[in-house]
Design a protein that fits this description.
Length: 349
């Protein structure tokens, strides 16, 4: 036994030196196989990196198998390279199956995941559960169609805009726009409890062709009750969306002096009524900026504003997104406003 071990060690560490190098090459298949093998080991990590590696190793071992069969005529070389080829093919099939399981059913859902959910660190499997709640369906709305009508449409779903633009109005008064990757009805969703019913207080109209996804209220509540992570995720997304809508509306509140009002002030809500309601029953007002002269009665009549007519816009005031921006008549003259207090600290007390 010791003699066999000694001969093995001698063969390993004291191998005979080559008497001479052969000038014959092993053929094109051998060199092609090793070249592809060299390129295959340049793949990266991850599923796609492994797919690249095994995708190149498979043809490499195929070339070496053919070389051992046709040139070398060695059964051991053919057997080992054939086994390596089969192992690479099995790995490729496994990787393709994994990518298919982790993939999304449509390009629009994949784009939604990449743009919204992936930056938040949401796993693909969790997004699949969220997409399953709206049955992986993308809905379409033509330009001019109404998603909701104030006082008529019940609040029974939550929708997320993928493309297009939605106009939000109250009694014909423009409020703000809803852009892609924003919720259509996040304020309505947060205003009701799961067991409460309600109707929209605003009208939502598509200004252009829109595509969106929509969750049924009960089904989404069921998912959120089962998955705590999904509940926290929607709480963050809805809170951010509502904050954006408030700031968009805040940018359209101006008074005559050109000062930008802050919608977060606690007693500002009573000045958000439509102009038609605030003007009803009030006597004609006079523009104090250009008082009429006593000697010219016609000029004095021009300073009066008939009942029901809106004041002309002042070119010095900053305008909003369009001509329908919400402009308040005179916030400084209204009772309970910030100007009645010495400072904002006294106002907030």
């Amino acid at each position: 036994m010791s003699g066999e071990n000694g001969s093995l060690m001698e063969n390993l560490f004291a191998a005979p030196i080559c008497d001479g190098w052969s000038n014959n090459t092993e053929g094109a298949l051998y060199h092609l196989g090793n070249t592809i093998l060299f390129l295959g080991y340049m793949g990266g990590s991850g599923a796609y990196g492994c797919l690249f590696i095994f995708g190149l190793l498979a043809p490499s071992f195929l070339c070496l198998t053919l070389w051992g069969w046709m040139t070398l005529c060695g059964p051991d070389v053919v057997t080992w390279n054939l086994l390596l080829l089969l192992a690479c093919l099995l790995q490729i099939c496994h990787l393709l199956y994994r990518l298919h399981q982790e993939g999304l059913s449509s390009e629009e859902l994949a784009a939604l995941y990449q743009a919204v959910y992936l930056p938040l660190g949401v796993p693909v499997q969790v997004f699949k559960e969220i997409a399953g709640a709206f049955e992986n369906k993308v809905l379409e709305m033509k330009a001019g169609e109404k998603y909701a009508v104030e006082g008529k449409t019940p609040i029974e779903r939550l929708s997320f805009l993928l493309s297009g633009r939605i106009n939000v109005s109250l009694e014909g008064q423009f409020l703000h726009y809803i852009h892609p990757h924003q919720f259509l009805d996040s304020p309505e969703w947060e205003s009701l409890r799961p067991n409460e019913d309600g109707k929209f207080q605003v009208t939502l109209t598509a200004e252009e062709d829109c595509r969106y996804v929509s969750w049924r209220r009960r089904r989404l509540f069921s998912l959120m009750s089962k998955e705590r992570y999904v509940c926290r995720l929607f709480a963050v997304m809805l809170g951010y969306d509502i904050a954006e809508k408030l700031y968009n509306l805040n940018n359209k509140l101006y008074i005559k002096s050109g000062v930008l009002l802050d919608i977060r002030l606690p007693s500002l809500y009573h000045v958000l009524a439509p102009p038609s309601q605030s003007n009803e029953g009030e006597p004609p007002e006079r523009d104090d900026r250009h008082p009429p002269r006593e000697s010219d009665p016609d000029r004095g009549r021009q300073g009066e504003n008939p009942i029901g007519q809106r004041w002309p816009s002042d070119p010095e005031l900053p305008s909003g997104e369009d001509s329908t921006s919400l402009v308040l008549e005179d916030f400084a003259d209204m009772a309970g406003s910030l100007t009645d207090y010495g400072s904002e600290r006294d106002y907030l007390r």
